[in-house]
Design goal:
By secondary structure, the protein is an alpha+beta fold. About 25% of the residues lie in helices and about 20% in strands. The longest helix has 16 residues, at about 10-25. Belongs to the YciI family.
């Protein structure tokens, strides 16, 4: 969400209800809000081969990740439909990224084009 977004108690109640609904339907696995940038966050990044640690907040930020949710779904389409019901999307300019989580990271995930694949 945009950096200046203020989360009201009503939205928090709606998010808690959304989580309860997802849990009742057998979809909810785990999720939590994230502390605001500057409280406990640092950014570790690779700058031309050197690891750099930057204490957040950083100047170039304009989007804040407020939370993450993990759902168990049969398909990406189902995950998108469930995400569309999340109360955070009531905010103007809010967005939600939906991604699949790999079950494991092994050579099967890397694919045949990976040089270590046998």
């Amino acid at each position: 969400m945009p950096e200046s977004t203020w989360i009201e108690k009503e939205i928090i109640r709606d998010v808690v209800q959304w989580k309860k609904d997802m849990r009742s339907a057998g979809h909810y696995v785990f999720g939590n809000p994230l502390k605001p940038p500057g409280m406990t966050s640092s950014i570790v990044r690779n700058e031309a081969g050197d690891l750099e640690v930057v204490e957040a907040p950083v100047e170039e930020k304009s989007i804040i990740f407020y939370a993450f949710e993990i759902l168990e779904c049969e398909s990406m389409e189902e995950a998108v439909e469930l995400a569309k019901r999340h109360p955070a999307l009531k905010f103007d300019q809010a967005s939600m990224e939906v991604r699949e989580i790999w079950d494991s990271l092994d050579l099967d995930v890397l694919g045949q084009e990976h040089p270590d694949h046998s």
